[in-house]
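Task card 7
Instruction: Convert sequence to structure tokens.
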Amino acid sequence: MKGPETTAARVLVVGDVMLDRYWIGDVSRISPEATVPVVLVDGEERRLGGAANVAGNCAALGARTRLLSVVGADPEGKLLETLLKKEGIEPRLHRDRSIKTTQKLRVIARQQRQQLLRVDFEVPPSREVLASKLTEFRSALKQCDIVILSDYGKGGLTHVAKMIAMARRAGKPVLVDPKGDDYSRYAGATIVTPNNNELRQFVGSWKDESDLERRAQALAVDQAQLRELLGDAELRELLDRESIDAVERELQRRRFVTFVTHQLKTPLVAVHQFLDLMQRLEETPDAAAKRSEWLARCLVRTEELQRLIEEWLTLARLEGGTLGRQRIRVDVRPLVATVLESYRTLAASREVSLAQELPEDACPVHGDPICLTVLLDNLVTNAIQYNRPGGRVGVCARRAPGEVVITVEDTGAGIPRDALPFLFDEFFRVRRPGNHSRGTGLGLHICRRIVTEMGGTIEVESTEGAGSTFRVRLPLYAAPGGGEAGPDEHVA
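Output:
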């Protein structure tokens, strides 16, 4: 059977690229240091991995292929570019000095033809760098017939919803190789191609082929309902050249309403149930103790409601431009000291110590003191809440050339590596076994919005079991006439 003609196709591949490395050798003994095989490496192979491999497969079929991605400014990124060109692929790789090119190193035993070990090297690119690539993506759409989005969960497709909307407006079919269990990110794609494990994460396990077909049809219905939510006429209007951003805003708004409705309903139902139980409670010797316990639970739930509403309103004000309008010279040192002092009681209740490291010289930035307080509140609260008894939270502010750096570090549980690329996304919450925290998933998203509005960046480093470090970089204040002094200096 003859396959489809592909030599005339122009394919644009976007996604997470990586360098696959293989160390190959003979195994003839076990190490005396530990019960592990010793591999005498005498060969090495380097291949295209991730979205780069997808691009390679397209080129092997004769398609004219262009690859859009982000790599580190390192020898591995340069090698990837060389391998891509060798395969006849046009690489459009952005070199980000803040990351390293993702590598997967596999150690192979030649005789047994068995993989003994895999070592991963990866740092996700920043959301801001990825946003800057959207302009190039829009331009590349004009010179392709089809778009392939290859998602390996490394953060390279943070803006996948916007890419799909842009491609649809340009009339290009979109194929998505998905990752994770949130397929709403791929709404509007022409085809989504999960493997068995990926599909199982989303639709659950199936008993047989007929059960799989039923679940897949249900998934198709869900996607159809999503398209019906917008309507063809409205979708066409939103996909106008001037309204690309409107698609993302409208989908975010509707998901936001659904999310908040659910989040508000859950604690309200719990409070209602406890109050109803107290109303029906008969007077018995232990009635007072039960009322006290149920009232305490009601207070916990109402605190959740209050936190959700506060973060909801903060995000709404940020979206509407009513928060952060003030731009004055703000020394972050007194803000740090004030925020830490306000959380000493909470930290003590969780057996967490607080420490600050502030320089003698001012650390002035150009911004809104209220927004900076919200930023510090969220970071310090998280550092305390997700810490361990006997743990520590340290906050440091310092000046660096052209910027002020604020660091918040803790000794808590840390963040799983696969969650890091999505940590600042709206409504994203890290799921851990035994963790029943009822966070809103908005706090860190608000932090990133505030920092971005001030022209800065926020990044995180984390090791599971050892803790996390959040680092905020804000431009150093510069007075209009030069220097740093200014009449509007804010001192908390």
